Amino acid sequence: MQHxxxxxxxxxxxxxxxxxxxxxxxxxxxxxxxxxxxxxxxLALTQSDYVAKTDELPAHCDVRGTIGGNVKFAxxxxxDWNSRFVMVGNGGKAGSLQLNDASQRMSEGFAAITTDxxxxxxxxxxxxxxxxxxxxMERDFGYQAVHDTASTGKELTEVLYGQEPExxxxxxxxxxxxQGMMEFQRFPxxxxxxxxxxxxxxxxxxxxxxxAFLRPxxxxxxxxxxxPIIPFEKLSVLGAAVTAHCDGADGLVDGLVSNPxxxxxxxxxxxxxxxxxxxxxxxxxxxxxxxxxxxxxxASDGSSLxxxxxxxxxxxxxxxxxxxxxxxxxxxxxxxxxxxxxLDAFNYLMFEEDSADYNYMTDFDFETDPARMAGAAKTYxxxxxxxxxVKSSGKKIIMYHGWADxxxxxxxxxxxxxxVDETVGEADSFLKLYMVPGMAHCRGGIGFENADFVTALIDxxxxxxxxxxxxxxxxxxxxxxxxxxxxxxxxxxxxxxxxSSDSYSCQ
Length: 507
Prior knowledge:
alpha/beta; 17 helices; 31% helix
């Protein structure tokens, strides 16, 4: 789709005259003059303020505005610019500016932009999925707002500094991961490199994970009632059984299930079963529920609708105990995050006709309803593996996903990387996937969650230095571990310091 420039006069001339070329002594004046520009139809600026240096942030220009009436953005332009542009992604259903993320990147020297994707979650009629009653907001949330914001942001950056960004980058996780994938599939010219974390890129399948996992875990079909078939307290027992069965595959018994895909854990075989439902054993009904969670859902033709949950995250903080079976709180209704995020998506986003009365726990039919989601798939799914344009143009992608992520299935990222390799070929030459043992959704957990994927991406894009092992740090004890590009796994050498990445090699 051709981008419509919002910074044009008749004849398409860019409005450079209204903003002088950047110089340190007149940066503040140049920032203020952005508001004096004559703008094209559809773009409205609401502020362009010079912000002096503080202990937290460097001196910068804070530009705010709207595109097309609904799409809000904030562009933060540092006085000391590194000639790079970056856009940060959203989480959940978006609906707000990600100012903390944009500020962090601006502090690193980037011209950084964020968007609310065209709806305002603070307005009740647009909160959650309720913006889905407006087709324009649906399209903006699906793909259009990010593209228009990126294009407009780069043009405004050029206006202030007097030069185009030398490189443009995308950074996002979860919904932000989906947004990045939508960008390189639909608008591959927008960015030179992408960091894509835990992407909910198969959006319709992501919504179906709620009935797939919560129905067996909540037989009364009431995820807010605090009555799961497996109580929160038993997650530690389940996690210990899984770890005992699966740990050590990387050459080290360290409490991490580093390769869940290679573990053949079976609840019916590997758990103690007792009909009394004691503290250290599981009833037949509980085992059957677990079997369904690990198996996922297949269509009648055998294709996967929802990938089964990987093993290893059962007792990891921020994993099952947040998204599937939360710890009960006194006088507060217990609600799994998966339900909180998905509960109204089927009412307003997934089907052509909106219905406030639809209850996915009781109404969703895995035989017939997936076909009814075809329109939603066209708007929200970023599943196209044919990204030959990305490969041929030299753009680079780094994906990462925590193996203990109970929100966005880690197997989905492996599926996409595999599909790209099969469709385009030589995926590893432009797309690297890093699976992070023990990490929950985007961050947290018990694994090595702190890895600098951004620096690795910049080095790949600008210096043609392809990343191999990337060192990651665990927050709890500052131990380090090598993260290896899929399908390689970090293997312990058997003799070195188990808390040092130097003791591991990619195999």
